[in-house]
Amino acid sequence: MTPGALIARAIQKERQRADLSLSALASRAGLAKSTLSQLEAGQGNPSVETLWSIASALDIPFSFLFETAEPELTLIRAQEGLSLSSELSEFSATLLANCPPASRRDLYRVHLRKGSVRQSEPHPQGTLEHALVSSGRVRLGPLDATEDLGPGDYFRYPADISHSYQSLSDHAVLLLVMESPR
To answer: With contact defined as beta carbons under 8 Å apart, do 59 and 25 qualify?
Structure first.
């Protein structure tokens, strides 16, 4: 299944589960109804901001928009995986493992480039982020409590408040685990 078809199926499934019309979800997500309609039809190339808006409006973890049945073994090479880019900053994230049905935990490999800051709106109440820097140097965390991290540094912080990610080196890679309560 193509990424567009996967996203289309998930948006429609979650919208129907929430018993929302296209218009109601578009309004909650701050999107045009035509944009949402195109995404549900498997058309368009949504940005990470658009998909975050939809997930937030549906009150679901971001990874629910990419749910598939997971094989027992999963190998994702460094340059593989479905990457989503930001329209607002030099930020891209690749979902490495979505959450099993009994819990809410998502794992991302995040690439950041120097020169821009990715600001994230609050995620659902109780969400935590666990960040482990793989390479480069980054500044991240809640807007009023960012920390500078280097390779091997780990930082856990609340993600149900506004937070940001910024590369302090030309390129940085970090592993990001989003943990949400059920």
So the answer is: no
Dist. CA 107–CA 175, nearest whole Å: 7
Q: Enumerate the β-bridge partners of residue 91.
A: 112
* Neighbouring residues of 113: CB distance < 8 A, sequence distance ≥ 6: 90, 91, 167, 170, 171
The rounded Cα 20 to chain-centroid distance in angstroms is: 22
Torsion of CA 9, 101, 104, 154, to 10 degrees: -110
Coil/strand/helix, residue 8: helix
pLDDT along the chain (182 residues), means of 10: 82 90 94 92 87 91 72 62 82 75 79 91 87 94 93 90 95 92 73
Query: What's the pLDDT at 174?
Result: 94
Determine the pLDDT at residue 64. Answer: 83
CA nearest neighbour of 70 among 99, 94, 110:
99
CATH number among 2.60.120.10, 3.40.50.300, 2.40.10.220, 2.40.30.10, domain 83-179? 2.60.120.10
Residues in the chain: 182
**Amino acid identity at 162:** S
